[in-house]
Write a structure and sequence with these properties.
- The complex is a heterodimer of chains A (about 270) and B (about 220).
- Chain A is of the alpha/beta class.
- Chain A folds into 2 domains: about 190 residues, 3-Layer(aba) Sandwich (Rossmann fold); about 70 residues, no CATH class.
- Helices cover about 35% and strands about 25% of the residues of chain A.
- A 6-stranded mixed sheet of chain A has the order 8-9-10-3-11-12, sandwiched between helices. Chain A has a 4-stranded antiparallel sheet with strand order 2-1-4-5, with helices on one face.
- In chain A, β6 and β7 form a beta hairpin.
- In chain A, α3 crosses α4 and α3 runs parallel beside α5.
- The N and C termini of chain A lie far apart (about 45 Å).
- With about 220 residues, chain B is mostly helical.
- Chain B has one domain: MetI-like fold (Orthogonal Bundle).
- In chain B, α6 packs antiparallel against α8.
- The radius of gyration of chain B is 21 Å and the shape is flat.
- The chains are: A alpha/beta (about 270), B mainly alpha (about 220).
- Chains A and B meet through β8 and α3 of A and α5 and α6 of B.
Chain lengths: ~270, ~220
């Protein structure tokens, strides 16, 4: 598809928070995302499930601009994410545009990726001070508020090496929220956790869903959790959305053969 | 062959050798300072992702590491003037030794930076940090502790290589001991003292570096 076919901005009235438009991602010959189309509306909680290698994590990584795009356009809040307008067509964005766009997006990772040389509080304050230019006082207040929200205020002066996986992940959620993103991405945030601490992380995410009007995209292997909190579940297969719908419909009454196979395989494993 | 150690001669030459030790320390310190800064620049230049730069720097580092230090010292001192760069033995010596060790230190830094997990870079991007902040605030502090041992080895290495500066007439320790020998026809005492002085400085330095590494790790909470 010719780049001139993509609008420079999405028109008023048709502006989902996130839109993937024919997005393709390749690693060499391997097609990870195959002309993906996906809309996420403001305040929506969308969960992505699917077998490994189906491209579900890639969706999040592309939104966070951790991966380059090989085809199509991603729009965030109506504006192209990794492209910008030049002479009336979309071209690859420069670093300045990327930084402006990245400000709307926050991400939590499977392995937390907290900064090991900083305390929990310093981890949360780093972005607000260095990137948003908040005073240390403002950043501290904001961070302490969020550490309270995730139940980690008691441990604010601990370094990550002194925290359990579940505690580290909760700090990582607070750190991401401290940047006040419009879209939050959760990439298998419970996959590296011991079973007994998964609940403390999922409870934080539940709280975010019920109390905050954040747009969220989540990749998870926890079907029960996905069912509880999602507005919509997308089943990925081979770089495409094979089937999507409200969680009850997709889990109780899947239409496609591959969805049925995947869900029954997951059920057996449970 | 007779072994006769003369204590009176030993005490007589000791002050002169200690004064020369000061020169050695200055040469090693200045050369190391150049190497520390230039090495970091070389290491970061190799990460710019801009091919002409990375290839040029890579080749430069390989070239420096594959040719002898003495040759590089001679080159700066004797060949420099042909290009209109006329430097004193001291300046030439420190530039040559600094340049030489910057190539080695750049490899130490590179290994340290490579050891920082990819997830740390990704977290920086997810927080929308600038490239500068990513390096200064996140990557370099984490690359530092594992690099200190290697950096310390080269500090001792540069110190032990300063005698090479005597070939262009820098009055460091070795040069002075040699001069004393030529004047008095006694080599036993001056060269033994040189050895002892080197030992007395190198050994504690290695220990201090280990302490420093532990201190940095604690300071960074790692």
């Amino acid at each position: 598809m010719d780049m001139s076919a993509y609008p420079l901005e999405l028109p008023e009235g048709d502006r989902p928070m996130v839109r993937f438009m024919n997005v393709t991602k390749r690693y060499g010959n391997l097609v990870v995302l195959d002309k993906l189309n996906l809309d996420v509306t403001e305040g929506e909680m969308v969960t992505i499930i699917g077998p490994s290698g189906s491209g579900k994590t890639t969706v999040l990584r592309m939104l966070m601009t951790l991966e380059t795009i090989n085809g199509g356009v991603i729009y965030v809040d109506g504006k192209p994410l990794t492209h910008m307008a030049r002479d009336g067509v979309l071209v690859a964005a420069d670093e300045r545009h990327l930084r402006k766009m990245r400000a709307s997006i926050g991400m939590c990772f499977q392995h937390f990726n907290l900064f090991p040389h900083m305390t929990a509080l310093q981890n949360c304050m780093e972005g607000p001070v260095q990137v948003l230019g908040l005073s240390r006082q403002e950043a501290r207040e904001r961070s302490e508020e969020l550490l309270t929200l995730v139940g980690m205020i008691d441990k604010k002066d601990q370094h990550p090496s002194r925290l359990s996986g579940g505690q580290q992940q909760r700090v990582a959620i607070a750190r991401a929220l401290a940047m006040r993103p419009k879209v939050m991405l959760f990439d298998e945030v419970t996959s590296a956790l011991d079973p007994e601490v998964i609940g403390e992380v999922t409870n934080v995410i539940r709280k975010l869903v019920s109390e905050h009007n954040l747009t969220m995209l989540m990749v998870t292997h926890q079907m029960g959790f996905a069912r509880d909190i999602s507005d919509r579940v997308c089943f990925f297969y081979a770089g495409k959305i094979e089937e999507q719908g409200p969680p009850d419909e997709l889990f109780d009454n899947p239409q496609r053969e591959r969805t049925k196979q995947f869900l029954s395989a997951v059920k057996e494993a449970d | 062959m007779s072994f006769n150690w003369r204590w009176d001669f030993t005490w007589e030459i000791l002050p002169r050798l200690l004064l020369a030790t000061l020169n050695t320390l200055i040469a090693a310190g200045a050369g190391y300072a150049i190497a520390l800064v230039l090495g970091l620049i070389l290491a970061l230049a190799q990460r710019t992702g801009w091919r002409p730069i990375t290839v040029a720097v890579r080749e430069f580092v390989e070239f420096i590491r594959s040719t002898p230090l003495v040759l590089q010292i001679f080159f700066v001192f004797y060949v420099g003037p042909q290009f209109g760069i006329r430097l004193s033995p001291w300046t030439s010596g420190m530039i040559a030794i600094g340049l030489h060790y910057s190539a080695y230190l750049s490899e130490v830094y590179r290994a340290g930076i490579d050891a920082v997990p990819r997830g740390q870079w990704e977290a920086c991007r997810a927080l929308n940090m600038s490239t500068r902040d990513t390096y200064v605030r996140i990557v370099i502090p984490q690359a530092l502790p594992p690099s200190i041992a290697g950096m310390g080895n080269y500090l001792v290495g540069i110190f032990k290589d300063t005698p090479m500066l005597s070939v262009i007439g820098v009055a460091e320790l070795m040069h002075t001991a040699n001069a004393i020998g030529s004047e008095s026809y006694r080599f036993l005492e001056p060269f033994t003292l040189v050895g002892l002085i080197y030992l007395a400085i190198s050994l504690p330095t290695a220990g201090l570096i280990r302490l420093f590494e532990g201190w940095v790790r604690r300071k960074l909470g790692m």
